[in-house]
Design brief:
The strands form two sheets. This protein has a four-stranded antiparallel beta sheet. Helices cover 27% and strands 33% of the residues. The radius of gyration is 20 Å and the shape is extended. It has 166 residues and is α+β, with helices and mostly antiparallel strands. The longest helix is centred in the middle third of the chain and has 12 residues. The two termini are 20 Å apart.
């Protein structure tokens, strides 16, 4: 609906295409890491069952993650979920190349990158204890981020105009 509004009102024309960009590949650094535990819950099945039966969705601890700065506690997380979260943390697209199927339970702790700015509380500026996200992944989960290049879908704006007066 929003797309059609933009196309009509602003004469917007665009297309999508894949372009090569620097990415990170999430890979196994150390097999059978004790920090990465196979989940006993099939979150896909649990979520679908809850939606179909009108039950409340499971708690975040069961099928999801809690993400305060510098910590990701997850239950039933797939490696694709982890890659998506890592993309937000490291500021670069992360793709799962672990080959690990199913969900996992883990608790990952790292020193978050301090957020700077005039409205940032002092306690957010001082969070530098602990390993970097890269070191924490290797030491705690037996995974690592490798530099790579890969296709990322981008939106190309071909045309846009000022809207006509009302």
């Amino acid at each position: 609906m929003l797309q059609s509004l933009l196309e009509e009102r602003f004469n917007l024309r665009f297309h999508k295409e894949a372009r090569e960009f620097p990415i990170f590949a999430l890979v196994i650094a150390r097999p059978n890491s004790p920090g990465l535990r196979k989940s006993s819950v099939d979150c896909g099945r649990v979520m679908m069952g809850a939606l179909e039966e009108g039950r409340p969705l499971p708690s975040v601890k069961v099928c999801g993650g809690q993400n305060p700065p510098g910590r990701l506690t997850a239950g039933g997380f797939t490696m694709a979920n982890l890659a998506l979260h890592l993309s937000r943390i490291v500021g670069r697209h992360v793709v799962d190349r672990t080959g690990l199927p199913g969900g996992f339970d883990f608790d990952l702790k790292w020193a978050p990158i301090p957020v700077l700015g005039p409205s940032v509380p002092d306690d957010r500026l001082a969070m530098t204890d602990g390993p970097s996200i890269y070191t924490a992944l290797q030491e705690q989960l037996g995974l690592k981020l490798e530099r790579a290049r890969g296709p990322i879908e981008v939106l190309i704006i071909d045309r846009v105009e000022h809207p006509p007066p009302d």
